[in-house]
Amino acid sequence: MARILIVEDEPSIQELIGVTLTRTGHDPLRANDAESALKLMQAELPDLVLLDWMLPGQSGVDLARRLRADDRTRSVPIIMLTARGDEQSKVTGLETGADDYVTKPFSPRELAARIKAVLRRQKPQATEDPVEIEGLRLDPATHRVTANGQAVVLGPTEFRLLHFFMTHAERVHSRAQLLDSVWGDHVFVEERTVDVHIRRLRGALEASGHDALIQTVRGSGYRLSAQKE
Amino acid sequence: MARILIVEDEPSIQELIGVTLTRTGHDPLRANDAESALKLMQAELPDLVLLDWMLPGQSGVDLARRLRADDRTRSVPIIMLTARGDEQSKVTGLETGADDYVTKPFSPRELAARIKAVLRRQKPQATEDPVEIEGLRLDPATHRVTANGQAVVLGPTEFRLLHFFMTHAERVHSRAQLLDSVWGDHVFVEERTVDVHIRRLRGALEASGHDALIQTVRGSGYRLSAQKE
DNA sequence: GCATGCCGTCACCAAACCGTCACCTTGCTG
DNA sequence: CAGCAAGGTGACGGTTTGGTGACGGCATGC
Predict the structure, then answer these.
(1) In B, which residues are within 8 Å of A223 by CB distance?
(2) B94–A108 C-beta distance less than 8 A
(3) Which domains does chain B have, with CATH numbers?
(4) Interface predicted TM-score (ipTM)
């Protein structure tokens, strides 16, 4: 149903993705590098872009930036394919404005699920643009969050956690969802680990003057909310 | 809880997995090779398959491919057990359609965690839409009920109870029906417990300005109604 | 090698929530 | 209007859930 552009230089992976997409009722377009991807998009905008982190010539990150900088392509959601375990790239990737990440090696089912989720999330659109809430500002380059001139340094995990909250504010997220979105697929940690990071993040935010930004919804999870209740 | 099929020719490992599964509240089925596994699945589909990479006769990889090629078994998630940790076999494993892999030797804890993760991903979030009625707005995404701009915090049970009332408004529900729908059919609690929760819910709604929304029908049960009578 | 920082896990504590009961109020029936 | 049945309500332990401090492991940098 949906037109999905695959930008991936490795033929076998491109093929695997293509088959998966077709089987789940999508319409795959293929490109091997950034240039041909751009050319394809000139003709008609796809509904979603699957973008490999590493590409020959221009990297996937650069391409993502270009897509985000162009008014015409800004609204097209992007899912990044990245090798796993690279903390730095995960954080850098946040700058590019990708909507989701899938770490290689990935399962076709996992990929399909995330595509579905991103496409569904498109409809309400409206917000979830840049990261700008409550005077909070995230700086991916330095892992810092500045608030009221007060800057606090966060650990990588807390940084990604806060970033996720800021791009999905007001909604309640279960520990499972947070593990999925912030820690990533294929990682196995206890759900209670989320609690601890929430606590550390709260501590950091508090130190920067913001209080009670992250609320607990008993039995359901956590939420970042602008208004205290 | 979940029926999990173990396909593993080594008895000691099969036993270890079986114990682990039972301990984590699952229901293990066992098969020693691909053929008996297929036969077992003919009878009833399991919720998940734990598949050894190496099997006598037909390898686990082949079995995975066969399961993925068959419409009937395609939806069953697969976790691969592989002896070697090398990246290549992991990639291959996922290409065959496995949802995750665990490398031997594995810790029972890791296995349990991955099973949980895969099963969790199977049923995605129930993406419930907000329900709105008579100035009341109940939004599962934020887990909030707002009335006239006033947000009220509810406990989990009260939340489910109100949700049920709002999606089944204007009808009278007996305590038995409410226990069935809100608490679940396998829970054993006194019917009078419903009364108490009704009271708590009424209190919360009253605090938000809404009064007499939930009416008592003597001898029959309760009803949520827009117009007061 | 040693120090540092981050992370995941655990043990323990506090608070929230829940089911039940006892007792009171309401409403129906004769 | 007496008597009874059904529902309302406040209180109380028990259980579950989340908060928090501490600890060991691992990686990184010196």
Answers:
(1) 142-143
(2) yes
(3) 3-122 (3.40.50.2300), 131-224 (1.10.10.10)
(4) 0.86
